[in-house]
Amino acid sequence: METTRATLARFEDATYRRLVGPGEVEIETVRPGSAEVRRTIIWIVGCLGRVYVRSVRGPRGVWYQEALEGRRVAIRAGEARFTGEAVPVTDPSVITAVSRAFMSKYGGDDSLPLMLRPETLPTTLEVRPAPER
Q: Which of 29, 58, 83, 93 has the fewest Cβ atoms nearer than 10 Å?
């Protein structure tokens, strides 16, 4: 049943394009038990029709830790804000495809190698539309 849910958990095409179009976006996270919203500028890519982010600081990234704890995130792309659920990616083939998407989108940026280090690869998260609560 999880496969069916995952198949349906995609952003609409227009939303997908707005999310993955900008070079940088802000991710909003909240430490569970706190009301303080943290905004962090990050890179975002579209791959396989889905939305992905990765922590340049690897597992030490505070926004990444908060996203794992609470699973709820918001992405600010320009003036638009989209709520989502952060889902860890464990499939090596998807992680490789996401790395290729980072290389394609950010290939001319000197920071790209930081996003491709072995310690950052496990911090790949898919951002899915937030489930109704």
A: 93
